[in-house]
Amino acid sequence: MKKLLALLLALAMVFALAACGSSEAPAEEAPAEDAAEAPAEEAATEVANKDKPLVWFNRQPSNSSTGELDMAALTFNEDTYYVGFDANQGAELQGTMIKEYIEANIDTIDRNGDGVIGYVLAIGDIGHNDSIARTRGVRSALGTAVEVDGAINSDPVGTNVDGSATAVQDGTLEINGTTYVVRELASQEMKNSAGATWDAATAGNAILTWSSSFGDQIDIVASNNDGMGMAMFNGWSQAEGVPTFGYDANSDAVAAIANGYGGTISQHADVQAYLTLRVLRNALDGVDMDTGIGTADDAGNVLSPDVYYYDEAARSYYALNVAVTAENYEDFLDSTVVYAPVSNQLDATAHPEKSVWLNIYNSADNFLGSTYQPLLQNYDDLLNLKVDYIGGDGQTEANITNRLSDPSLYDAFAINMVKTDNGASYTALLSQ
Length: 432
Ligand code: BGC
Description:
By secondary structure, the protein is an alpha/beta fold. The chain has two domains: 202 residues, no CATH class; 179 residues, Response regulator (Rossmann fold, 3-Layer(aba) Sandwich). The strands form three sheets. Strands 3, 6, 7, 8, 9, 10, 11 and 14 form an eight-stranded mixed beta sheet that branches. The chain has a seven-stranded mixed beta sheet with strand order 12-13-2-1-17-15-16, with helices on one face. Strands 4-5 form a two-stranded antiparallel ribbon. Helix 7 runs parallel beside helix 8 and helix 10 packs across helix 11. The radius of gyration is 24 Å and the shape is globular. The protein starts with a helix and ends with a helix. Beta-D-glucopyranose binds next to helix 11.
């Protein structure tokens, strides 16, 4: 904000000087840069906030109970989009990765030899569609899923050591002609007492509680994300040699595969972070939305259909997921590297600097903090966007919205809500 004021002052001075000294100062002395900057500054003041480009990312505006998309938020104006990843494709990959690990290691997996392959599951946020999809993906691959009204129940079971829970069932896996029982021994939403979800510390405590009462029955640890997965791995499963599976392919989790972490899923954050800022850039440039996405831009940036797709009806871009296991983890060791096909710098004359307000729902979220934000910070330079990053507390929307007191200072907005139901808290601010 200070920089913008300084710039405005500087511009005012340039004009004032030019006006006073018009007889001696030839027009060509006005630096070319100012000429290019001027329209950008005008745009920032002239465009109504409600008409500025808006991108939702990572938390798709939707009803946290039913998962139904919040189309009012998704179609707030003609330059509104969502950027995320294909939750169902990724969830299926995660479930399959765990199932294939069990099949490949069937001779050693059942640690206490009781004939039951037991797993525990860390759930991120029971009202977050990505979390729900991952719980369903694991249960469906392992045969523990129970359907309610045509959809797999994704409720946590608490503890289920005796197999009596109704939200899941005992599954069976046929491996080399033998039938094995698979049981979800325990699952819990990892929410801390202050209300923050996907909470790694809560998961670290849960595994200690679970392992102290039925540790010898736990053969697999599964988690809706790597933040929680790594807390459980570091707190218990690494020392016990129990394979632990997460999601996100954060650098620390990928490195841990060398030490027994079972695997993770890359949600192609390198593509998502690019798309998050790219849709804003395109809207600000007034060019076709496919520019630098499905169609190469003037710098040669382009994505191929094997890494993303666009769903026009939902105004949503989705990155595709890739399994990261002992086979391929060495290619994923740094989760903050930009995706090479979209790593070319835009020309600053044709794409002048614009300012963006961007928030992360929880500054302590492992994935957003250690993978997504560093990627955004790499792409903002390449796309000539000056981004103000705001980190929330993960609990209250107001903690974030209070820090968007003057939207007119920005050209565009990128929003990561605390709760997926709360799109209107932001659109109301932009409509004032
Ligand atoms: C990630 C989680 C993260 C959550 C935040 C998910 O896509 O997998 O790690 O905590 O987003 O919304």
